[in-house]
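Wait, mind explaining this?

_____
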Amino acid sequence: MSLKRTHVFEYHERHGKLFEFAGFEMPLWYSGVNPEHVAVRNSAGVFDVTHMGRSLVTGKDSAAFLDYVMTRNPSTLAPMQGQYTVMCNERGGIKDDLTVFKLEPDEFLTIYNASNRRKDLDWLRQQSKAFQVEVKDVSDEVAMFAIQGPKAQATLQKLTTTGLAQIKRYWLQFIDYGGLRVSASRSGYTGEDGFELHIWNTPLSKPEAALKVWNDVLEAGKEFGIQPCGLGARDTLRLEAGMSLYGNDIDEGTTPLEAGLSFTVRFEKPRFIGREALAEQKEKGVTRTRVGLRMVERAVPRKGFAVMKDDVRLGEVTSGTHSPLLQQGIAMAYVPPSHSAVGTKVEVDVRGRSVEAEICAMPFYDQEKYGWRRKQT
């Protein structure tokens, strides 16, 4: 079975180290994971995220429908406002985490994980039958790039007359871009400030507009040292920021209450898929919770490694890496709430070797120095 390709595959093939991800042939890195990671933390990087899923939900029941299939309240959004949310199954397990933007009173853009493109589209269409809505897959008609880092705004501002400073976090705006239909949302998956660009009306068969925007961004950011970034750096950046990866840290066997995503669940709603199961779990209390782990000794934790305390297995690592910024091993894991307090000492079984680690807050970095909350200098 041949792998899918995005609009700017021509660039990836010339400059990147390619690998398979979610059925796509994507760049793992260009210059390397570490330099790309550091560029995003200190300046700017651009990612091709066109492999993610995008659908338009339209119709008079669109707001009510999304309130039913999602745990938050998309109906409360103002035009051009967005939110991070989750969709659950009837047992309260996470079908996916995603972002939703309200474009018009009866039109919403949903953006979900590449690995769940078909699953999410089928789920939305299946659940929509009782509502007067249309769910249209636009994934192959809209290219999508993420410009991330403290110099992301300065880079993108060189390409448009639209004032980008006015776009608030998790809001979207259509921007002036030389006759192309382009929207920019202040969002991303790195922990840094930045924008996700959507280049509309750009089918895969006519990638020229997407290639132009990609090359424009790289040229505009040249003075800031912008780097094209692959999915390797995207993974280390999101982990440093404490953001979950679907299939690793969250899945249909994990609830948002266990995953530290309780803020996405609106129990005041009388009805949404998974509400009863989640309400029962909230009343009883969770038996495990997602935590951050910082290795005290030198070692790189990996998915599946056991987390121990006094020879008792507490849980296992769901995501782990060597942090390019902190220069030490970091991870996420699920442990009982009784062992989840920041500062709790545990051990990680690293290929048969017991290595000391410590429960820590996420994100892993100093938020005064890095990330979108950093203090500007």
Observations:
- Residues 9-49+140-239 form a domain with the Gyrase A; domain 2 fold (CATH 3.30.1360.120).
